[in-house]
Amino acid sequence: MINETFLMNGYGLYVWSAFVFTLLSFLSLYIVIKVQYIKEKNKFIAKFGNLNSERATFAKSQRINREILSNTTII
Amino acid sequence: MFKHFEPNKIFAITSKAPKYVLVLFIIILTIGLTEALILSPEDYKQSHSVRIMYVHVPAAWISLGIFSVITILSTIGYIFKIRNFFLISKSLAPSGFVFNVIALVTGSIWGKPTWGTWWAWDARITSMLILALFYIMYLVAWRIYQNNDKVFKITSIILILGVVNVPIIKYSVDWWNTLHQPASINILSKSSIHISMIFPLLTMTAAFALFSILIFLMKYNTELIKIKNKGLDRL
Question: Which residue in B has a C-alpha nearest to residue A55's C-alpha?
Fold first, then answer.
């Protein structure tokens, strides 16, 4: 059973490499997009921290800014 | 109607949705992989190599689907000046491109045991390669042009030129003599694929679609934060 699953009548190398390539592509894309997300979010938090109280209050009046600040860990 | 698609209104949803989509994706992918690699039968002609179909076909379907969708969105966005549609298109493109690459690579891996070669310049494979080039041009255009009006115009032109290739990909196996087999699944007529292979194929397609939604949501949120970063600079 295990032999059949891995060797697949000699086609195992082709089948497993196709599936492994697919899953590695998924993982790579996920990591790249997540890193971009974290970078932009940290930039936003840093810029927000540098605002004076009047500007920070104005920026916080926008709902989307509040959402960005509240969702510090999305995934 | 378009005002409902404003980023300020939908960010509350798009920022929370990824974690649920990720969980659903992992569940569906696990079921799909079990079906595809263990439970589904081997083919009477291709033996176990047929299992490559479960990653190759959904990847090709989704890359074509995403390209068509981003073309429609960009065209509507350009005509009606809806900036958010460009943002949605830009966020969908990375997963479309990766699925295109997966379709090409897994097709090449499948070609070796089936046709005896890794690559053939036949109509289906070549037209899929051309689609990948259009994806690259589209993604590069977003990196090169900073001016919004210019990038909207150039990316729309790239997509409109590229979408001409989509029906060519679909019908290439009917119009020309190709190594690539004709479509096994037909919506309007009887499919030639056995029912036992349809379930894993559709499950993997659902998993791949969920993955592209997940990547879209993460990328879309990143783009929105990028815009908001520029807004903070102006304060």
Answer: B235
